[in-house]
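A note from the maintainers: we've had questions about how concatenated examples are separated. There is no special marker in the raw files; a new sequence line simply starts the next protein. For clarity in this README we add a label.
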Amino acid sequence: MMILKTSLRSFFAHKGRMALSLIAVVLSVAFVSGTLVFSNTATSTFDKLFAATASDVSVQPQKPADDGEQQPGDKLPTVPVALAQQVAAVPGVKTAVGQVMVGNAILVNPATSKLVGPTSGAPTLVGNWTDTPRNPMHITSGHVPQGAGELVLDADTAKKAKLGLGDRLRVDNAGGKHEFTIAGIASFSTTNPGAALAFLDTATSQQVLLGEQAFTSVEAFGDGSRGDDQLKADALAKVGAGYQVKTAAEQKAENNKSVGSGLDFMKYAMLGFAGISLLVGGFLIINTFSMLVAQRTREIGLLRAVGGSRGQVNGSVLVEALILGVLGSTLGIGAGVGLAVGLIKLMNAVGMDLNAGDLQIGTNVPIAAYAVGILITVAAAWIPARRASRIAPIAALRDHGTPAEARSNIVRTIIGLVLTAGGAGLLVLAAEAEKAATGGQYLGLGVLLTLVGFVVLGPLLATTVVRVLGAALPALFGPSGKLAQRNATRNPRRTGATAAALMIGLALVIGASVFTSSATESTNKQIDKNVGADYTVSAGRASLSPDILAAIKATPGLSHVTEETALKVTLTAPDGSTDRTFVAAVGATFADDFTIPASAGTPDTLKQGGLAVGEDFAKDHHVKVGDQVAVDYGKGHTQSLPVGLVIGKGNSLFSGVPFVGLDTMTKAVPAADRPLPERLYVKAAAGADAAKTLTALQDSVKQYPQVEVVDKAGYKELVKGQINTLLYLIYGLLGVAIVVAVLGVVNTLALSVVERTREIGLLRAIGLSRRQLRRMIRLESVVIALFGAILGAGLGLAWGVTAQQVLKDHGLESLSVPTGTIVVTLIASVVIGLVAALVPAFRAGRLNVLAAIATD
């Protein structure tokens, strides 16, 4: 009881000083709880949709052996029309409906030649309108499609595209362009997760979407006399083993898995924010409690003198931390709900419609929030609590503060040096590793050890580095500069912990900047060196239809057009080992459009029926030029090809993907099973104006808004944009780290002002002006921030350079150090120091001189 009373009294006596640590806990918990609330809400939305719409039993085409992702140009698997009657005859089935539903078509407004529906995230689905017991949609205006020229569009998509009854809408797919009149608008019975849906009548959907009289699945609904598992067993017995049959529960699980994989990136990114915030916030909490313990030295001595044990002193500090953790976690849950609402609105903006009014706050939210908030706070406070309990009562009563613990400092230094040296050694091993996987493991462990090592060595580095950084301050700023330099080195442990918070964020951003800059530089060089084609044509998630191909080829001023498509194949080496992978089937002029790096053999063999494999494949499967490799394209289509080219490593444009000539592939795969091309490479005719030809190409496919035509410069920008996605995420992490780091610097300075109240009063009494005092605190803050920035820059450079070396054989052949980013980072650290010092400097300047001198 005494411990609780002491802790409560101390906590509320220092509530202002606890406020910034409280903010750090709130931020950390907010990211964790917000991520969970968002994830719960998204999962619940899709659960309700799938539960409300799934049939009791779904009979689908046999799943491919590799269970691979459907490629844009792949032919859709189907089931025969007669299967619906077979399933309807299964005992216990009330209704069996043949369904057509495809995701490889796009919707286009023919009046504007603009895409209708989401361009990323949620899919565009086109199928047949069916009346089922669990139809997720109902007609709200107009009527169901009643002929070959009519279409039903979902209400959300119609509203976004400003389309209504009677308007024209085009469905584009591999079969060409197909125009329809919107005859009906349908609304979801549950929440629309963001997909665009269009429905045709069954006969038209089969002809336009599948090119045959078939279904993509048969959906069966029971009469209630049998369970789903029994219906599944009876259906399997009826239709045979050539199909996969799934119950409603299995359909729901599969759909949730598919949706979950799309949400995982957002989820893990947000947990990354939470992890950085927790790590950086831990240093802030350690500093706060260290300084509060130092300020309560005499109080702790009195507590020990009247019989308080070490455990009670320790417990008193930890109870304060527990109060801080509980309060911060409670506020963090509220902030997390607000963050979840923001995330939902963000997802709505990119095409996934979630209802912010239907937030799902499960039991996992408060459990995780309180576990994270309390554990990190108590764990961070344990170090100063342990130090407080070891203060000798007599030393405390004499106001000597915490003992120097010289032996502890020596041990700390040795541990820090060992960790840093070990981490540096692992980074060297990573850079020299032959395999990227091995190098990646060394890199990860090296990053961890060097980070921990620098944190442990922080006080030792602060003593030397800060003295050097502040060497010019006395000459530039006189007494204020000299005092700032000494104040920054007065408590190296505190300075090291304060700077560590900033160091972590800056190390991340500089390491990521080196990596992304090297990736961009390497790719640009590879494009300049290896790409001979003048233009690249692609259609995003769609394939290139024969109409698009014809339009491109008909453009004047072209030398040739090279097609590329991808097929999932099984390669069998002479030793019997196999590899399930994608193979790129390319036109005969591919070798003219690209300079393929050859480890052995020549690219011309692609025109002569040869197979090109990556160097890693050749090494792993003991394959050399001239060896025969069996290629299985699936559906019984196979051929044996000689290896004519081994592609060298170190070029991201090829990345080990096997190549085969398009003419060679067509000898084994009939036209009905060949996927459509995914990309085209175009070479301008000799003497043609490059800019005018690009414009002509873009004009030729203007009516196909999904098609993008770019030249080399545009191709570089596309690649750069993909690479920068990672960098922007890291910048976001840095933003969180900087916010918490600034709070740490503010807290350290604010508490140090309180701690040095009498000293500040004496300085003012002997003639130091308010302006000089404020300058002293600002300079001290800038020096600490610069110290953290320099440590972060050093670590980030080491990490980024090592990552480039690890992946130099996988496309990152060029090292590029973004000096501009580093300079901006160092300048930003000065700004951070100045901003963090504003409030503490203002408060210090307002201290009453006589009251400060009289402070006990």
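[label: protein 2]
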Amino acid sequence: MKEIMSQIPNEIQSVLKQFRRWIRRYILMEGVAVFVAVAATMFWVTFLVDVAYFWFSRLELPTSFRLICLIVMVGGLVGLGVSWVVFRLFKHFQLKDLALALERRFPQLRDQLITTVEFEHEATSPLTSQMVEQTSREAAEKISKLPLEETFDRTPLKRIALIATVLFSTLAVFGVANAAGVQRWVHAYILTKDNYWDPYRQQALALKVLSQPGERVREFDENRTYKHPRGADLQLLVESDDAAIAPEDVTIQYISFEGNATERGRANMNRFGDGEFRHSFSRVVNDYRLWIRGGDFVNRTPYRIQIVDPPQVDAITLMCDYPSYTGMDVMEDKPVSVVGTQVSLPMETEFELQGRCNKPLRAVDLRSSRFQFSFGYRLVDGDEVPKPTTFTLRNEENQILRTVEVDASPESLLSEDRSGFQIPFVISSKAEQQWEELGDRIELPIPIPPDSALKIFLEDNDEIYSPEPASLLVNGIVDEPPVVDTKRTGVGSLITRNASIPVEGQLSDDYGVASAWFGFKVGSNMEEQTLPLNQLPSGQKEFTLNDAADKDVERFNLRPLKLQEGETLTLAIYAQDADDFNGPHVAHGEIFSFKVVTDEELQARLFDREVNLRLRFEQIRSEAGDLRDLLAEQQTNLAENVQVEESILSAFVERSLHQLRKNQTESRSIEVSFQSLREEMVNNGIDTKDKLDRIDNGVIAPLGVLNETLFVEADQRYALQRLSLQRGAGFDEALRETVPAVDALIEQMDRILEEMQDRGTMNDLIQTIQRLRDEQLRLKKLTEEKRIEENFFFDFEE
């Protein structure tokens, strides 16, 4: 090339070099202008796209999109620079191309310039060389006069330069006027930051949760997740940052997930004060994704509501240590499962309240109307730290009286896997008194009063409280005094001084009767005396009174007391339980009052009763005779073939049967009364063998035959009459068979009445003797009084 250039005239070489420089300068200026214009255009396009996207979504452009834009911009600008500047600027320009370009622009060169360039280096004949030389001189002369600046069309360069200048100027002005916008663009597209809009937002909102109970403000974790108890109401709280402008309204958008289906929705949050908004979802059972919008704020990643089961008590059991006096030691190894919400325990029972839960726990809070027992762990800088175990006392107005620490750690009260707890208590009637005597600390077991309604609140590792507390009512079974159910038998209110008073009955106690005795008073003596029973209880829950001689009664003998006629005796049986905590408790049965009389007076009283019984029996005999007369009348009618209506016969049978049964009931009562008379005679020591034989064989035994056999036979015969009437046949035969049964009944009654009358004659004699004796004693007393009176006046006259 240098060789060729050396053969071309200097004037032409100079022009071509200058032309080549001008071309390269044009290319450089045009490339720079295009580069600037394209770069500025890319800035404005991407800037406006970012602004438009934020305007509609309030979010930053996706990072992937911005990375693509960055790659496209860098690639486009590099490609543009290489293709429009580098490749064109450093392109090798041939002299022939430069000459050709000039020839096209300036036709007056008449191909002399291109001919000079093409043939100068070729070996030719002298003639040709001379001609080329001549052409070169002419070309040099012409080219030196040409206006080379007109070779270029500057209009496209001016246009692109103008566009580049305008775009660059707007960018420069915008960069000065809104440097924050340019900086945001740099953060978005060059540095590809995620939150590049944050410094430029006017609103800044934070979503929180008002957790129950107590509307505790809970924040989402670092993953924007909040665990919510299943079925509980979800109350959301949006707070505006103090350094930001509070929006006028806030909208919450959500997606609810139910199985494979989803539900989308939005709601306007309610404004509470300045910069605070709330919204509630009722009974949330599905997971949620949440976005909040207010002003120019919206969260990029959704808040997540994850539904979990709340902590709850699945089962409650009690391990009890019963008081020894209850006799329930054999049951202490058997846990008491609480069915329902109530359990009853004997007073002074120590028990360990064991609860099994559905998930691991962090803390347990047990409350009643009078106290609160709390233990567990708390979070400190993300680590669990045991919190003090406390026992808080409250008054009836729920005001805190005092709080003391409990000598127990959470490790000892929570199970190893924390899915359960065990709390020692003792149910005591003296619990409140023990509370008043508390110092700064209290030891387990915790005393609680009877009928304590406990509510158990749980907190799990997700800081979720149980929405509803587990309830347990612990009733204290108060050890009541023993029940003494007694009655006297075989004696009345009048007794002899040799009497043996039988008392029958039963002693009972919830946990066993420890001891029992007779308590009695004589006359007006206020001091009560005691005598042990013949057979003593030994811890039985039910004890029947008995002694060695008589298995059905316990006897109180008056003979050792040596009572006198006219004195009174008050008697009762006492029983005591074995309660050594709140007892022992003592109770007594019915209080019996007696008056001591002579044997003769008691016999007279018994005879009066016997006379009344005989009169009653005579009435029964009379009514039985009436039944026999009615039977005879019906027999006469049958013998004379008198027609009697069936209704009249039926009424006759029914009245007779009713009368017969009434008489049988009264006869049984008389038999029982005579047995009672016999027992009083025996128990008062006024019986003899003859007396007992006469009353046993003459009255009681015949009455037994009468009531158990003869009345039954007669009743059956009348029943056969009724049956024959119902069947419509056989009444005559049934009537005839009834007559012998009624006759046998009357004959037995007559024999009994005869014996009663004989006894009456003897008793009358006894009463007569008693009256004579009483009269003799009266006269003797009057004589003695007269003698004293006469002696008194005789002494006075002297």
